[in-house]
Amino acid sequence: MSGITTFxxxxxxxxxxxxxxxxxxxxxxxxxxxSHPLFVYAPTSSGSESPPSKVAVTWGEVxxxxxxGAKLLKDRVPSIDALNAEGKPxxxxxxxxxxxxxxxxxxxxxxxxNCVPFPIYPxxxxxxxxxxxxxxxxxxxxxxxxxNMQHLMERAVxxxxxxxxxxxxxxxxxxxxxxxEDLYLSxxxxxxxxxxxxxxxxxxxxxxxxxxxxxxxxxLHSSGSTALPKPLPWxxxxxxxxxxxxxxxxxxxxxxxxxxxVVPVFHAMGTFHIFSAISTxxxxxxxxxxxxxxxxxxxxxxxxxxxxxxxxxxxxPSVIEAWSQNPSYVKWLAGRxxxxxxxxxxxxxxxxxxxEQGVPLSCTYGSxxxxxxxxxxxxxxxxxxxxxxxxxxxxxxxxxxxxDVDGSDAFEVIISGAPYHPGPQVxxxxxxxxxxxxxxxxxxxxxxxxGYWKILGRIDSKIIHSSGENTNPGPLESIMNQDPxxxxxxxxxxxxxxxxxxxxxxxxxxxxxxxxxxxxxxxEHEREAKLSEFRNKIWPTVEKMNAIAPQHSRIFKEMILIAxxxxxxxxxxxxxxxxxxxxxxxxxxxxxxxxxLEESTQPSIPIPQQWDLQSSKAFVRAVVEKxxxxxxxxxxxxxxxxxxxxxxxDFFQIGGDSLQATWIKNSIMRALRDGAKIDxxxxxxxxxxxxxxxxxxxxxxASVVENKSLDIAVRQQGPDAQVEVEVQGMNRMVxxxxxxxxxxxxxxIDSPTRKRRKVVLMTGSTGGVGAHILDxxxxxxxxxxxxxxxxxxxxxxxxxAGSDDIKTKQKEAxxxxxxxxxxxxxxxxVLLEAQLSEERFGLEEDVFEKLKKEVTHVVANAWRxxxxxxxxxxxxxxxxxRSMVDFALATDSLLVFTSSIGxxxxxxxxxxxxxxxxxxxxxxxxxxxxxxxxxxxxxxxxSASSIAGLRSVIVxxxxxxxxxxxxxxxxxxxxxxxxxxxxxxxxxxxxxxISWIPADLVARAFRDFLDAPETETRGNPSFVHxxxxxxxxxxxxxxxxxxxxNVDVVPFGTWLExxxxxxxxxxxxxxxxxxxxxxxxxxxxxxxxxxxxxxxxIRNERAKRLSKTLADPDVPQLGxxxxxxxxxxxxx
Length: 1132
What we know:
By secondary structure, the protein is of the alpha/beta class. The protein folds into 5 domains: 22-315, ANL, N-terminal domain (Rossmann fold), CATH 3.40.50.12780; 341-460, no CATH class; 472-599, 2-Layer Sandwich (GMP Synthetase, Chain A, domain 3); 613-717, Non-ribosomal Peptide Synthetase Peptidyl Carrier Protein, Chain A (Orthogonal Bundle); 965-1002 and 1021-1132, 3-Layer(aba) Sandwich (Rossmann fold). 38% of the residues lie in helices and 15% in strands. The chain is built from 38 helices and 36 strands. A 7-stranded mixed beta sheet has the order 2-1-10-9-11-12-13. Strands 28-27-26-29-30-31-34 form a 7-stranded parallel beta sheet, sandwiched between helices. Strands 16, 17, 18, 19 and 20 form a 5-stranded antiparallel beta sheet that branches.
């Protein structure tokens, strides 16, 4: 057949008589098959040169890479060759989205290092990852390079500590998974002399330890579709049989190219197939090795298979169904030797049509517990039996008749041990005294072709979706059955992309439907209204189901089918639902539901090629106009009363209804799924209700594509799920600005002159704290010069130093804070108009180069202060801090960054309190864009420190409480609270401590931090908490305020109620009650926490160690004089 590649069949298979272990078989290949390929891929284009059409990776290279990987792991993983506490080899977890070649090689390298690999599904929840780690005693985890994997592991560690009592000593170590370049050191094909020397040396350094037949060789795990996944051990004997059982395949596959582009290696289906190559000489087509790995799509999978000349393809049903829509794809597939699917049922119509069009289609049958159990590939493929399989001759399958499936000769499949097949690695039953594994699969024989079997379903009712994922309906149905309005329910979705549920109402809830049907004249509008009313009643219970279900198992509102009184549910004698019979009886309604879901989209509208804001809005506009105008004309009997829809028109205010909202949502989701490759199954609600205009919906769609996540459903799963979304956004921002740090090879660390003098580059000098920092620096005799970067106003130029505009701005800042305004003329001060997020800070090149030569310290103090903004609104500030980091790296300057104790917002996610001067979890800082942005910046600095050796101090600044002249911005929360007291007639009482710190004291501490030693700042940031070293009590101050203003002192809750009530009574109250302008800030203050006004109790030992100012035992506490200065400044 044309376009099919076949490599040499000159392959010498290893002995399969048990004389060699799997690892010894690799050594066999190194000697006998070093030039025979194991992988082939089509490289991506780089630069102007055309890449080769395909690249083969030979067994010689693979074996050398395995040994290289084993040595690399021995060097990276502490005591890797020591036995664990139980005297067994250590278990190494792999948590990564890596390319197939690197991942498989790493798994083999772990085995060659005499350890046990455990590939862990990277889409597991943190709780599931922790559960798996604990169950098998994982001692080390190899992590992928994407931020999500590292975050997932961090979260898993939290579960290990909280749920399983892990101490720091017991928590698994982590290191980055080896990449292709780490493993495949030689470019030459086959075994080079250099490679042979390396293999021989490592073989001596890491002797291969013998394993008994029952010793564990690797772990896989179950899907854990609703419960936690279960680790499944594969023994040494089982793995050996896995590599040799392919001798019973239907055809010889030596030298044949088998595309597994769509199959992840961490999945059992990928693992089993690649291990089979050890004794067959098969060549696997995969994506090129790269970081990040290629994300499979129907298009790039087929293109990858085509470019490597694959004669055989293994895929999942959903991808094949997508291919079936493209005639050119179908024509190419018809020219293959075999197209196999596994993981779930393929749509009957699609499969039949493809088979009739000449595609050699057939199914593969297997399980994580038993391996591949069908002929793989089959000897013969019949057009009218494409969805049937034949058992491998090497397997021992017992078929037990099952009479629970009406109208079918169904059999339950039970697998027991066999000489030439792995057999069950897990035992859950016995047959005639022999251990076996009940798969819970039900099959029936083909009426024409004996020995060919079709999968009907499962005894345990597990639903297998077309994506290859599965849903275990039992726990979900149990939740629904607890609803007081529900008599019973049955989930469905076998062979479909998503799940649905049939709900039978209680007798009381059925009455309206019975009356409606018995009238004989059903009003469809009335019927739909009653159905909608009932769905709304049970929706809170559906939300509970969705909260525990994996993404692919969540229920959409439109996938809820209400049982008809004329078709009551069928029950067994034990009053359990007869699911199969019920689903069969409701097949027409179920199919209609899926058809309506698919038809309620607008496939005729072109999907955007770009997903920027403008293109996204244009697409949304086209969808909305087509849906709303179409329905307007239909509802008015053909007389169109439609008008142009404006971008700010609310859909529901111009005649839209819930059905049209569904059409709009589904059209957008289809485009996101097919065009932007977004997994849309996480959306259980209808985002059109949240974004009911073209403008807002278009912006939302653009954001979804940018963030590669459709996270709508989390808003319906409670605060924890919302926090997860915030954290994902924070991690994406960290990842975006933590790439390509450059290490300065010409560091000036040892320069004596550099140690004596300080030239400081600072930002934020016109703010309250910044003005005092600048004042302190200019007064310091060890500071030679200060360059102050002041943000350029709109329309300003890039002219050099000392323009009147920025001088005036700095002078006004000094005057307001009571600082000598004449300092703006200091010879030590250079004011520069700048834009931090621009290249070179927006400065002229000669000015910037001068800074690079002179600056020794950087104080990054500028930041936007607005607690109502989201993280995205702070991106320019974050981009600016990355620029400051790059500058500090280029000049080896000490970077002092002003963070905030405001990052300690979600106390309930803290591992311990008081908060230490150390990094914190993203969850703690996830409440609000301001605190998120500070946390993101901390992470960027931390990455630069560990990767590139940045010297840094991160100053988490507490509440700065005014200047010596009493200056304290009256718009901030405490001034606003005090100024609102006369209007409310009361002020807040609290007997706890306050650690607010005056701005001039902050400045003196900042100056001290510039002298932080190398040992405290190089390689890891020095976190310090800048709060008052001698806290005072709020109660000692509030009595004076109450007496002066003649108001009552009341608990915080009472005060907040009065504030909220004042806002409700008078919409214009904000004009005189300034606290109303920042009401959400007060509502977020949790008085159950340790410090007054919901502030965190934090440690500050390092800050006092690095600052002689803070260490002074005679630092004055806040008192009456401070309070009187503040109130005078506020005009009270």
